[in-house]
């Protein structure tokens, strides 16, 4: 059983890493948002795995809270993107630099 | 009874100021004239009541400053000197107010005028009623502020603004000396109340007292326009004529004389102080009188005459003819107010023309003005038996006796000679003025045609003042040295008074001499300006350049301009440069350093979201890695 916990953790870490890479390198803001979701799912998977293997309900609870917040967060994020899309023609992160020095 | 409420006297003009200042311009308009005059009249009547009750003393309104050993009350001192000053100030001011209703009738700032005027009187009343040096100083300054406001009353004229500024700045020079004197008085006496200071003169070294006295006199020189701080007074003519009358006769310039009179025991400790005061007074009297000879602006002649007469008052104070000096202050207030208001009436009739060269032959057109002006002129020339004769004669007699008596100083005999010369010149320029204005031929036909007598509201004050100028001297000052005014003032504490008993014959001889001299002056003016034998021009040619020198007022203004003002400007420029280049430079340098540094560091803020995220992720990795490695 211990070996299979590691397998879950590897998958979770991989998901998180792919998501982080996406956030760092992609220009399209929608893809960035999707990548953030991916990172969150990686974390959720890790927490779920720990809950199962440690037989601790706290992991499920944390996972559910995280999912709920993630849903709310995507709504806010998408709403911001809709607003921004009214100002710029293309939703690329390098177009939104007006708040720099 | 009234002595318990002395603050009622200044309250009346203050209320008038408040009403006129707040409601005047919008609601009251022409009614402000009546309100202002009423306020002053109430103050005058209260003063008369206080005088008739004959109770004197002190009263404290409230404690103003309490700090360590320094306590200052807003207190009132009422004694005979205060009463005389109050009667003169409120009485003359009332007449000036009434006159102003007529004179200022067509001015669009009528209400503003009648707001400042009672404030001026209020300040002056408080000044003479104060019982300590600090209150005196505060109202001393307030009088200065009011003079600034009134001289610059027509503030759309640049010359008026400049004159107001000049009056204020020149007064500051004097106030500086006065302020230091007040500091020194507190330092040495630990109190600022007149009574306590004058009672403890023995406890302070006489050399210190000499310095205090001279500094006090510097203050008096500024307010009372003594050489070399006299330059503001002739320029003060830029204000409306009633203001000139008020400044010259009742308020402002008499403040210096009053202050020296009030503190004369400090001066008497050291004879050097008296010699300086007498010397400056005598010199100023002569100096200003000679300038008055050549001026052609009617108000300027009167202005220099005021300076000259104030000089005589200081000479009187220094000679110990203390009562005579105050007496002269009072009579001078009457006849100088009369002359100024009279000249205002002439100027009014001549459509604001002030040059006497455009006047002439006005005596038939302006009968009342001429009559009253002549009375004022005779009083100013000290012709028997008008007011000026009694008071000025006593000042000169005081100087003479101070000069020949054992405990005096011979230099006062010299001052007496100067004073006599001044008498001669005074009579001369006064009659030159009268003849040029009212006699001879009309030099400007057009103006002469349109000239008309002033309305009754202006003439009545003139007549009242003429009666005072004619009669006050004899009523108050007869017999010499034993008249009402002497009787009234002789027991003011701390006033040394030279007794003339036993030298009555000398006094009469001196009176005859000074009258003869005055008549001589008047006669020569008549010969030169009316009969034209000899002609004025040929006399002017006797001493080449003399007329120009006098006409340009000895170039004092120019000397001050190039000597003091220019130097001050250069110093100011240097200081400005230091401030702008060095002080500001240092501050700007700091700012520049910070800005250059931030020009480099701010490039970190790219505005690229992913850069921030990258730094964040990097930070997280490094922190976690560090935890793993170093734990």
What does this protein look like?
The complex is a heterodimer of chains A (101) and B (631). Chain A has 101 residues and is mainly α. Chain A has one domain (5-94): Helix Hairpins (Orthogonal Bundle). Chain A contains 3 helices and no strands. Chain A has helices at residues 2-25, 29-54, 57-87. Chain A is elongated, with a radius of gyration of 17 Å. Chain A starts with a helix and ends in a 14-residue tail after the last helix. Chain B has 631 residues and is mostly helical. Helices cover 74% and strands 3% of the residues of chain B. Chain B is built from 26 helices and 2 strands. Chain B has a two-stranded antiparallel sheet. In chain B, a hairpin with a 2-residue loop joins strand 1 and strand 2 (70-78). In chain B, helix 14 (298-319) crosses helix 17. Chain B is globular, with a radius of gyration of 30 Å. Chain B starts with 7 loop residues before the first helix and ends with a helix. Mean pLDDT of chain B is 83; it is low at 493-497. Classes of the chains: A mainly alpha (101), B mainly alpha (631). The interface between A and B is medium-sized, with 13 and 11 residues.
Quick overview of this protein structure:
The complex is a heterodimer of chains A (101) and B (631). With 101 residues, chain A is mostly helical.
Q: Please state the average pLDDT score of chain B.
A: 83
Describe the main β-sheet of chain B briefly: 2 strands, antiparallel
Shape of chain B: globular
| Proportion of helical residues of chain A | over 70%
Quaternary assembly: heterodimer
Structurally, how many domains make up the residues of chain A? 1
**Major sheet attributes of chain A:** none
Helix content of chain B: over 70%
Please indicate the percent range of residues of chain B in DSSP E strands (runs of 2 or more): under 5%
- CA distance, first residue to last residue of chain A: 54 Å
Anisotropy-based shape of chain A: elongated
Helix count from the secondary structure assignment of chain B: 26
Secondary-structure element pattern of chain A, one letter each: HHH
Give the class-level CATH name of chain A. Mainly Alpha
Strand content of chain A: under 5%
- The number of helical runs of chain A is 3
**Largest two-chain interface:** A-B, 13 and 11 residues
């Amino acid at each position: 059983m211990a070996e299979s916990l590691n397998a879950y953790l590897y998958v979770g870490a991989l998901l998180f890493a792919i998501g982080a890479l996406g956030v760092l390198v992609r220009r399209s803001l929608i893809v960035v948002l999707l990548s953030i979701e991916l990172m969150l799912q990686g974390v959720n998977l890790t927490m779920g795995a720990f809950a199962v293997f440690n037989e601790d309900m706290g992991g499920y609870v944390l996972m559910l809270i995280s999912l709920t917040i993630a849903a709310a967060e995507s709504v806010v994020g998408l709403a911001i993107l809709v607003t921004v899309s009214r100002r710029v023609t293309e939703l690329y992160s390098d177009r939104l630099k007006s708040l720099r020095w | 009874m009234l002595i318990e409420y002395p603050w009622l006297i200044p309250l009346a003009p203050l209320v008038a100021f408040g009403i006129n200042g707040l409601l005047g311009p919008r609601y009251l308009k022409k009614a402000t004239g009546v309100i202002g005059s009423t306020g002053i009249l109430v103050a005058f009547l209260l003063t008369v009541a206080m005088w008739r009750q004959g109770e004197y003393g002190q009263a404290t309104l409230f404690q103003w400053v309490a700090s360590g050993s320094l306590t200052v009350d807003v207190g009132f001192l009422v004694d005979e000197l205060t009463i005389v000053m109050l009667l003169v100030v409120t009485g003359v001011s009332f007449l000036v107010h009434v006159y102003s209703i007529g004179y200022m009738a067509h001015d669009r700032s009528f209400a503003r005028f009648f707001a400042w005027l009672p404030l001026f009187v209020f300040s002056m009343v408080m000044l003479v009623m104060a019982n300590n040096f600090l209150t005196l100083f505060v109202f001393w300054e307030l009088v200065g502020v009011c003079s600034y406001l009134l001289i610059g009353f027509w503030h759309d004229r640049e010359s008026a603004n400049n004159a107001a500024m000049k009056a204020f700045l020149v007064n500051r020079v004097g106030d500086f000396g006065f302020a230091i004197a007040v500091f020194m008085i507190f330092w040495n006496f630990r109190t600022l109340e007149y009574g306590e200071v004058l009672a403890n003169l023995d406890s302070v070294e006489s050399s210190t007292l000499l310095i205090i006295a001279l500094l006090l006199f510097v203050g008096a020189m500024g307010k009372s326009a003594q050489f070399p701080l006299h330059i503001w007074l002739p320029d003060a003519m830029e204000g409306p004529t009633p203001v000139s009358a008020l400044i010259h006769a009742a308020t402002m310039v008499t403040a210096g004389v009053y202050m020296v009179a009030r503190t004369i025991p400090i001066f008497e400790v050291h004879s050097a102080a008296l010699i300086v005061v007498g010397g400056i007074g005598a010199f100023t009297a002569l100096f200003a009188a000679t300038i008055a000879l050549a001026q052609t602006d009617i108000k300027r002649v009167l202005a220099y005459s005021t300076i000259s007469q104030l000089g005589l008052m200081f000479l009187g104070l220094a000679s110990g003819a203390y009562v005579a000096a105050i007496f002269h202050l009072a009579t001078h207030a009457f006849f100088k107010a009369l002359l100024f208001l009279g000249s205002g009436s002439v100027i009014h009739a001549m459509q604001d023309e002030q040059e006497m060269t455009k006047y002439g032959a006005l005596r038939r057109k302006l009968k009342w003005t001429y009559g009253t002006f002549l009375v004022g002129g005779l009083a100013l020339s000290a012709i028997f038996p008008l007011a000026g004769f009694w008071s000025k004669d006593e000042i000169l007699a005081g100087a003479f006796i101070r000069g020949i008596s054992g405990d005096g100083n011979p230099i006062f005999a010299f001052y007496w000679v100067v004073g006599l010369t001044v008498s001669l010149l005074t009579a001369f320029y006064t009659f030159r003025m009268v003849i040029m204005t009212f006699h001879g031929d009309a030099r400007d036909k057009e103006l002469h045609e349109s000239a008309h007598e002033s309305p009754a509201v202006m003439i009545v004050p003139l007549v009242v003042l003429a009666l005072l100028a004619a009669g006050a001297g004899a009523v108050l000052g007869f017999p010499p040295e034993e008249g009402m005014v002497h009787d009234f003032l002789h027991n003011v504490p701390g006033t040394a008074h030279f007794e003339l008993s036993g030298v009555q014959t000398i006094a009469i001889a001196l009176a005859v001499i000074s009258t003869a001299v005055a008549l001589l002056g008047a006669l020569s003016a008549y010969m030169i300006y009316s009969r034209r034998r000899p002609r004025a021009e040929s006399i002017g040619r006797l001493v080449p350049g003399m007329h120009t020198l006098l006409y340009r007022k000895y170039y004092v203004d120019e000397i001050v301009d190039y000597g003091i003002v220019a130097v001050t400007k250069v110093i100011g420029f240097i200081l400005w440069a230091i401030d702008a280049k060095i002080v500001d430079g240092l501050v700007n340098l700091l700012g520049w350093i910070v800005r250059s540094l931030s020009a480099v560091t701010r490039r970190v803020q790219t505005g690229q979201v992913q850069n921030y995220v990258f730094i964040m992720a990097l930070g997280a990795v490094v922190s976690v890695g560090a935890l793993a490695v170093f734990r």
